[in-house]
Task: inverse folding
């Protein structure tokens, strides 16, 4: 069943789009990532113009992360205080990121910068997470308790900086400087790469801030929801690149997938979840890396003179 | 050049008569001057507007036409040929070429094609190479391989094709557009239904761009163009499509808030309907 999209101006298969939304929604519910880093490449692969894919992806992320965050909120696994602090940093970061985006585009090779960023970040984060979670799994198999990363007295000096704040939900008493810095950094990345930043946020919260894994996912979803909502409004106001019909179809699949994902997540241990997310992140990173190195099918691509790829 | 001009004057009356754009009889060699041909030729579109709805997934555009006062001998020998091409809106487009740089494929060289039609769909009575020479096809922008991308209008009477921008980039553009179904040729897509009536089927792609499309029809007699005519086809979004589009471009900010609201309501409803905990 085909449908002609009003803004993207192309004809798509209804079931492919809904299915795409479901698959990404499932992963989003499972890992607490918005899925922006998956949905945007998938849409581009399906011939949706990249500008529309990035913006519409953000709109779909609002739905899936809202749905997921709500589920986590009901279970009490959202740290609103920590999430809001990250958000404050993220908002500043987004502004800086949008400026950097313009700068990169003006000197050309923005596509390359984005691809390299993806490969470096996905590759290194995926690798680190996989390494850690596998070791943690081996430890728990031997019988020692290691499913949660936190051990007393292991705070690094970063978390002991001044301006300390208590985050009861995460059982943390840490400086807000690294929290806001992390939020800022992720805001920059999110604006340049066109994603919510969950795949960077989740591991950073686990390994840098030492937030318990179960709280991380809900809090990350809460943060992503706001970032994606702001992106959606900005994109609609400046570029008119939100295809609401396409977004709605993705959401429809996404919310269904997210519920099943959240349920599946409850059956897995923290280290297993981290290992799976690590594999997913690595797979996307490796795929993008291979694409940069392998001889492409066609050496030529079409673009409009304003710089966006057609 | 002077030859083309004098004949252009004599052909002016017919040009006005058939409502064509810029008709000049062929003047490639000084000796072959074609007199005002007796044949007359016209086409008609069933509708001058195509509305894009949510269900639009490409369609066939049927064009009917008539050829009158045809020479019975030439008709028996099937030496009349008709080629109809629908040109989509023209726009500049950048073609980029990837090159290996320290092991990584990155965009290096690029060329701007000044005015490539967004879509191009052609139907003809026979294979184009059997109808007329390559030079004529290039002049008239007939055929994907000889389609002009520099923005000049197809016209007769030019001594040689204009210089082409960076051949390899133009070739790449043709290849990509053909691969996506945006450029197409249908040999045998024009068929005579009787001695004078003919019908053409043109394939319109699902990703048909909005805007003014121009259908140009050419009548060939023994390999020479003797008549041509054109019609404009307007492609617009209609109904729901048009409303969404207008809302998105006129009230961008509100549209953004609506999009977020839709997302939140969908996410919330999803929670209620699929509540599993």
Result:
């Amino acid at each position: 069943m085909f449908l002609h999209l009003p803004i993207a101006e192309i004809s798509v298969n209804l079931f492919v789009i809904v299915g795409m939304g479901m698959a990404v929604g499932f992963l989003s519910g499972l890992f607490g990532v918005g899925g922006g880093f998956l949905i945007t490449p998938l849409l581009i692969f399906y011939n949706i113009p990249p500008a529309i894919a990035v913006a519409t992806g953000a709109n779909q992320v609002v739905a899936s992360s809202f749905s997921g965050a709500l589920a986590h909120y009901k279970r009490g696994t959202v740290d609103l205080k920590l999430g809001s602090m990250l958000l404050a940093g993220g908002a500043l970061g987004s502004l800086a990121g949008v400026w950097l985006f313009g700068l990169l585009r003006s000197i050309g090779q923005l596509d390359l910068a984005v691809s390299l960023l993806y490969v470096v970040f996905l590759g290194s984060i995926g690798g680190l997470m996989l390494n850690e979670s596998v070791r943690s799994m081996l430890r728990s198999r031997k019988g020692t308790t290691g499913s949660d990363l936190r051990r007393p007295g292991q705070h690094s000096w970063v978390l002991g900086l001044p301006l300390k704040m208590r985050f009861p939900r995460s059982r943390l008493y840490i400086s807000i400087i690294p929290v806001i810095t992390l939020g800022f950094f992720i805001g920059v990345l999110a604006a340049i790469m066109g994603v919510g930043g969950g795949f960077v946020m989740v591991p950073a919260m686990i390994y840098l801030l030492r937030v318990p894994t179960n709280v991380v996912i809900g809090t990350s979803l809460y943060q992503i929801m706001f970032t994606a909502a702001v992106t959606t409004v900005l994109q609609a106001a400046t570029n008119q690149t939100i295809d609401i019909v396409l977004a709605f179809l993705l959401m429809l699949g996404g919310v269904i997938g997210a519920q099943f994902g959240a349920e599946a997540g409850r059956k897995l241990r923290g280290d297993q979840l981290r290992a799976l997310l690590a594999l997913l992140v690595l797979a996307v990173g490796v795929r993008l890396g291979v694409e940069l190195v392998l001889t492409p099918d066609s050496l030529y691509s079409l673009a409009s003179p304003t710089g966006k790829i057609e | 050049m002077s030859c083309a001009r004098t004949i252009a004057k004599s052909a002016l009356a017919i040009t006005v008569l058939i409502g064509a754009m810029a008709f000049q009889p062929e003047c490639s060699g000084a000796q072959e001057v074609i007199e005002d041909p007796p044949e007359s030729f016209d086409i008609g579109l069933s509708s001058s507007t195509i509305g894009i709805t949510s269900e639009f997934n490409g369609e066939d555009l049927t064009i009917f036409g008539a050829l009158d006062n045809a020479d019975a001998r030439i008709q028996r020998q099937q030496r009349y040929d008709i080629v109809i091409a629908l040109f989509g809106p023209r726009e500049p487009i950048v073609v980029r070429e990837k090159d290996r740089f320290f092991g990584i494929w990155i965009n290096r060289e690029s060329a701007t094609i000044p005015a490539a039609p967004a879509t191009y769909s052609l139907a003809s009575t026979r294979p184009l190479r059997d109808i007329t020479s390559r030079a004529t096809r290039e002049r008239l922008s007939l055929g994907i391989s000889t389609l002009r991308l520099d923005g000049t209008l197809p016209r007769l009477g030019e001594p040689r094709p204009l210089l082409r921008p960076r051949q390899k980039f133009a070739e790449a553009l043709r290849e990509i557009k053909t691969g996506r179904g945006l450029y197409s040729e249908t040999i045998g897509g024009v068929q005579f239904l009787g001695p004078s009536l003919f019908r053409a089927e043109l394939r319109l792609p699902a990703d048909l761009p909005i805007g003014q499309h121009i259908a140009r029809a050419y009548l060939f007699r023994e390999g020479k163009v003797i008549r041509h005519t054109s019609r404009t086809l307007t492609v617009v979004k209609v109904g729901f499509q048009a409303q969404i589009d207008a809302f998105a471009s006129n009230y961008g900010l509100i549209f953004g808030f609506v999009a977020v609201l839709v997302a939140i309501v969908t996410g919330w409803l999803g929670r209620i309907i699929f509540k599993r905990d």
